[in-house]
């Protein structure tokens, strides 16, 4: 794999631009940690060739983690995982019908051999944070920043606990 200096390390894709209001939280999490990422619409059903081209070329372009969000018959994360060796994080996007259960079940129940790390329905922020953790496993400086982030979370909860008790 060729890692291009300064190029995107995370590919953040979604089945439709209508998924962006949900997926934006992943972009925000990546930006908080200064992770270079690319964003795009890639549809498993409407642009199948583009999806395959994207999945097959991602590692060679220096992408190290793919975050894929889709709603309804949400086949994008699984199909991308089938055509790339990269870790794929799936985000079930909730649509107006079925409360996102259709999206969740479409993404989470993958056949053995083709893993997708599925976050909660609408859980794009955690998808971004999980991508940061994957990258941090081979980047001590990034791992330190993740530890600081976790310490901040803990301190925030403690402040709220103290405020409630007063
Ligand atoms: C899915 O179909 C997309 O991921 C989106 O969640 C859903 C609806 O897409 P639009 O009709 O809003 O473009 O493939």
From TrEMBL:
What this protein is called in its record is: N5-carboxyaminoimidazole ribonucleotide mutase
Listed A to Z, the keywords are:
Isomerase, Purine biosynthesis
- Residue ranges constituting the PurE domain according to the UniProt record: 8-157
Q: Which organism is it from?
A: Dietzia psychralcaliphila
Q: Gene3D superfamilies under this entry?
A: 3.40.50.1970
Question: Quick one: which residues bind substrate?
Answer: 16, 19, 46
Q: Name one GO molecular function term.
A: 5-(carboxyamino)imidazole ribonucleotide mutase activity
- Tell me any Pfam family this protein matches: AIRC
Q: Which family does it belong to?
A: Belongs to the AIR carboxylase family. Class I subfamily.
């Amino acid at each position: 794999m060729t890692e291009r200096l300064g190029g995107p390390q995370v590919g953040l894709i979604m089945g439709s631009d209508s998924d962006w209001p949900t997926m934006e939280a992943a972009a925000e999490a990546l930006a908080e940690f200064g992770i270079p990422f690319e964003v795009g619409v890639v549809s498993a059903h409407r642009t199948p060739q583009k999806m395959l081209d994207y999945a097959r070329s991602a590692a060679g372009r220096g992408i190290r983690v793919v975050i894929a969000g889709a709603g309804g018959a949400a086949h994008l994360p699984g199909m991308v995982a089938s055509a790339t060796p990269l870790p794929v994080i799936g985000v079930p996007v909730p649509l107006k019908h079925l409360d996102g259960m259709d999206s969740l079940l479409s993404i989470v129940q993958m056949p053995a051999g083709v893993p997708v790390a599925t976050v909660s329905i609408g859980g794009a922020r955690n998808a971004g944070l999980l991508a940061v953790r994957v990258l941090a496993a081979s980047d001590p400086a990034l791992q330190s920043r993740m530890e600081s982030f976790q310490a901040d979370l803990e301190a925030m909860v403690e402040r709220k606990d103290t405020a409630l008790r007063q």
